[in-house]
Write a structure and sequence with these properties.
The protein is α/β, with parallel strands linked by helices and about 260 residues long. It folds into two domains: about 5-40; about 45-255, Glycoside hydrolase/deacetylase (TIM Barrel, Alpha-Beta Barrel). It has helices spanning about 5-25, 30-40, 45-50, 105-110, 120-125, 130-135, 155-175, 190-200, 230-245, and strands at about 80, 90-95, 115-120, 140-145, 180, 205, 220, 250. Strands 2, 3, 4, 7 and 8 form a five-stranded parallel beta sheet that branches. The chain has a three-stranded parallel beta sheet with strand order 1-6-5, with helices on one face.
């Protein structure tokens, strides 16, 4: 009779194990890596519809083995570019400042696997660096747009260098990386700007080209949400244009 309680306990344990197995999250049954992929990336088949696109984004071609060479203003100076010299039918999406912190944009970049480049200004981002950390975690890249967004040609060389190198240090502190690319505020620069960018360790001064029909290698300056349009809505409009004209979106850092 003393053995009955032990047998009953064993039977209860088996029943519990069966019940627990039935209650396991079905996604977890895929295994940890697969479950993480599903939860992180989500289903992609219909993602384009959720974000206002009429068709899935065309895949970008394989990045070039070597970055195309752009003409510089002189020895040791970075090139100033508004497009990348490539025959690939690709364009590049860039965003400035960091004022827009639409949380839906993180989901858009993640679900569409959208390669975007964010040129950040420290005084504009303010306490919002965590938002851009989330964007980096889903594939966006962060580059330099000065500390305070001044009109650089109005500053002496030392002032320009402080603005550019200062933001290099800020982004290194925040994200552990030193940007390779620099965009001058308002797209305005002079010879001192290019020299300061070189002295701060930057590989290219990046402008943009948003006129007429798209051409291979165009760098697009994407609008922030305005007049009630969210950042995701404004980006969807750009993506629809890219699709209509037969282009794919590629990562700028793969080409510059």
């Amino acid at each position: 009779m003393r053995k009955l309680p032990a047998a009953a306990a064993l039977l209860a344990g088996l029943v519990c194990l069966a019940g627990c197995a039935q209650s396991v999250d079905p996604i977890e049954r895929l295994g940890k890596k697969a479950a993480q992929k599903v939860r992180t990336h989500g289903p992609t088949e219909d993602a384009y519809r959720r974000w206002g696109l009429t068709a899935p984004l065309a895949p970008a071609p394989k990045p070039p083995a070597r970055r195309p060479t752009a003409r510089t203003a002189g020895p040791g100076l970075p090139p100033v570019v508004d497009r990348v010299p490539t025959r690939d039918r690709v364009v590049f999406l860039t965003f400035d400042d960091g004022a827009e912190k639409d949380p839906g944009f993180v989901d858009m970049v993640r679900e569409l696997r959208l390669p975007v480049t964010m040129f950040l200004t420290d005084s504009v981002v303010g306490p919002g660096y965590a938002h851009f950390g989330r964007l980096r975690a889903v594939g966006a890249t962060v580059q330099n747009h000065t500390l305070d967004h001044p009109y650089l040609p109005g500053l002496p060389y030392a002032g320009q260098r402080a603005e550019i190198c200062g933001q290099q240090e800020k982004l290194k502190q925040r994200f552990g990386i030193r940007p390779r690319l620099f965009r001058p505020p308002y797209g305005e620069y002079n010879a001192d700007t290019v020299r300061a960018a070189a002295d701060c360790g930057l590989a290219a001064v990046v402008l943009w080209r948003d006129t007429g029909r798209l051409s291979p290698g165009d760098i697009l300056h994407c609008p922030e949400g305005r007049a009630g349009t969210s950042l995701t809505g404004a980006t969807a409009a750009v993506l629809n244009r890219v699709q209509r004209e037969g282009f794919a979106v590629a990562r700028l850092e793969d080409y510059l």
